[in-house]
Amino acid sequence: MRDVAVVGFAQRQMKEFEGSPTCVELLVPIFAELFEQTGWTKSDIGFWCSGSSDYLAGRAFSFVSAVDAIGAFPPVAESHVEMDAAWALYEAWLKIQTGEVDTALVYGFGKSSAGVLRRTLALQLDPYTMTPLWPDTVSIAALQARLGLEGGHWTEKDLAAVAQRSLADAADNPYAIRSGKEGVDELLARPLYADPLHKHDCSPVTDGAAAIIIAAKDHLPTTAERPAWISGFAHSVDQADLGSRDLSGSPSARRAAISANVGGAPIDVAELHAPFSHQELILRKELGLDDSVSINPSGGALTANPMFSAGLIRIGEAAKQIWSGDAQRTLGHATSGPALQQNLVCVMEANR
Predict the structure, then answer these.
(1) What are phi and psi of 81, to 5 degrees?
(2) By Cβ atoms counted within 10 A, which residue in 37, 128, 226, 244 is the most buried?
């Protein structure tokens, strides 16, 4: 296996929807920021890979318009996944492993405000038995949270504690669109949004984009003083039928953690893509993260959750912890599908 490291990361989240930029307008300054970080130009990138969704954009081949941010000439090697860009990062990592390229720039984007997001996401369900009923994503998460409450897996106070810590940590994150200093009791006193969830238990609708640069060991930029080496990278998926699995757990997250060797050494920081507060509790258990692990110091998806880049952002935030010297071994996680159906785990280390 070739040693590959994360060497660049940039992101944008929109606090206001009215007049928010197009995907191309979002991506151009992000690419410029990455080139400034690495000292590279477009010619140093061997492979470009993106994550987005046509049904979120409301038109076929919507990702082609985002290629305008790269530029039409000279031609580039490019690919796309209809998923969060964390899976595009996985494709780019594999591309480098083959030896075909040595560097890659991965980006994801989504304009969730273009429609009613919780209804749009019903389109990712089984098209014959589930989608015709239009169960929205918040209601499905509420059913999952209720199942865990009645099964004794967590309490309402546990959910509020996750939200309270996330909102407090987001105060130091300039890209978070939601933060707060309320205590657990104050959060519990708020009105319910989708019983048993409050609004602070649900990630906010967010427009945004993010990008990451990865490079093989012998092709690092000179600016990479402390690269975040990828030591474990895996993903797994559970059945789409919500009735075929216990929703209070996530077997695919557990399998991905085992394949990525999460338990091989202590994790200092974990950035978990948990769009709902109870899902963080599920992930901590399935990934084997004890109380010594710092969870989502960025505030996590409960404070900003741009579709199709939120998972990539978790990996970028985890990489930043290594770049800064605050952590030796970190974990970035991404999820896709309803109720934690698909999960990806990326383990990064300071030493290689």
Answers:
(1) -120, 145
(2) 37
Distance CA 102, CA 214 (A): 9
In a domain, 12, yes or no: yes
Q: How confident is the model at residue 64 (pLDDT cuts 50, 70, 90)?
A: confident
91 domain residue, yes or no: yes
Summary count for the chain: helices (H), strands (E): 11, 13
Distance CA 162, CA 245 (A): 24
- Structural domain for 46, as ranges: 4-117+205-216
Q: How many CB atoms lie within 10 A of CB 285?
A: 16
C-alpha distance from residue 194 to each of 142, 199, 202 (Å): 6, 8, 9
What is the domain count for the chain?
Answer: 1
For residue range 193-214, what is the model confidence (pLDDT) as tens digits?
999 999 999 999 989 999 999 9
The CATH number given to whatever domain includes residue 94 is 3.40.47.10
Distance CA 213, CA 7 (A): 6
Closest CA to 78 of 87, 88, 86: 88
Residue among 312, 285, 289, 293 nearest 301 (CA): 312
Is pTM beyond 0.90? Reply is yes
Q: Looking only at Cα atoms, what is the longest distance across the chain?
A: 58
Mean pLDDT value of segment 240-269 = 95
Which residues, in sequence order, are CB contacts of 281 under 8 Å at separation 6+? 148, 153, 154, 158, 159, 162
Q: Which alpha helices (H) appear in the chain, and where do they start and end?
A: 23-38, 54-57, 63-66, 85-97, 117-120, 137-150, 156-169, 184-188, 251-259, 277-286, 310-323
Asked whether residue 186 is assigned to any structural domain, the reply reads no
Task: Average the pLDDT over 229-239 and give the result.
Answer: 97
List all residues 6 or more positions away from 15 whose beta carbon is below 8 Å from its beta carbon. Answer: 177
Residue 89 lies in a domain: yes
pLDDT band for 63, please (50, 70, 90 cuts). confident
Mean pLDDT of 179-184: 96
